[in-house]
Batch of 4 targets.
Target 1
Amino acid sequence: MNQSKGAEPVSIYEMKGDTDALWADRISGENECAVKDRKSVKAGGPKYLNFIAFVLRKKQAEKRLGAVHFRFHRKDRGKR
């Protein structure tokens, strides 16, 4: 998270809930992470692992204003 230039951390916390249901949901997919996590679950990983939530906020882009030049003219210029 420290390396993210586009987001700032709002909070980090351990997720609560039925860990068996959370793990079942986590490994039910066919994506690469779910397939790898199945090995950890079968090896007893849930006894030692938990779910951590990271809440991030997208940073607002800094607006940089270019140099603005104003030229003021006196209304009575040339009338002296």
Note: Residues 3 and 62 are 18 Å apart (CA to CA).
Target 2
Amino acid sequence: MKAPRAVRTLRAADRDIELTVQLLAAQSEDAAKAFVLDLRRTVALLASAPMVGRALAPSASRVGAAAGIRVLPMRVFRRHVVFYRVTSRRLTIVRVIHGSRDLHRLALEG
């Protein structure tokens, strides 16, 4: 079995995560903690099995900024989608976006 890939989180994804945690914590500290735990589990899964997510639609992937981006909904917070790129050594978290937002446009901004 291969060792999990190193994980890098882009600033845009860090901002997404921080904003989501703040919004959830304003309603429920437990929900914010559950989100962070779900995200950690999702990232750990992606680091060890990155192909579990799906590639962006071919039309979106043609755009230079979106090339190679894959997506996976989080397990518990299913409306939140993790956008990432993977190489043989690294998993890069590009964005973590709620599904009600313009996912393709925001992923391209990451």
Note: The longest strand covers residues 90-98.
Target 3
Amino acid sequence: MTGIPYVEDRRKKMKRILTALAIVLVLAAVIVGVYVIRGYYHRVGTRPEPAATVSAVCPVMGTAIADVNKAAGKSVYKGKAYYFCCPGCKPEFDKNPEKYVAR
């Protein structure tokens, strides 16, 4: 026994729509689950982390040095430590420190 063609076509169309909707819902659940597991959901609306603060400035070039542990060089002059942005600045400073300290 065959059904009415119009009704059969509507059933097939409805089945396709429901299948597509189920796939979309499963994908949405997976995406939300990943965000929750990774902690993104909890970070929404929170303040961003503050930018790194500058801990030193190269006296020769005036370049900011974010981490003195990663500075290219260090010199101590009159009891104060000076940090450098590149290897070329340290010898330049050591030649005439008064010129750069006075800035």
Note: The beta strands are 56-57, 64-65, 73-77, 80-84.
Target 4
Amino acid sequence: MYIFGVKNKFRYYCVWLVEWSVFEHFLTLCILINAINIATNDYSSRETGQEPTAAFYVVKKIIDYIITVFFIFECFVNVIAMGFIFGSGPYIKDGWNKLDFLVVLNGLLFLTGLGSK
């Protein structure tokens, strides 16, 4: 991004965080929780036109927001640590990171309400 130099403290801490094994394990746990959250969706509301209001679905929605915000944070930290397009080993050149970026963009649309009906 050319905003933060190689010796910038903020970028240094972003690189440290991205390479920290605990962060990677936590990210994997979030992906697993998100997959379970998606797998437990009930699409019967499409037929009735009413949103489910049970406590289970309220908790699911809260989990959705928390996971989405974390994925946005993870993407931001990776972009600062690796660079976005230019330099050696930029974020967007990796295939998995391209998918990650699309998921984050989708999450941003979800959070802003632009992706809803």
Note: The mean pLDDT is 88.
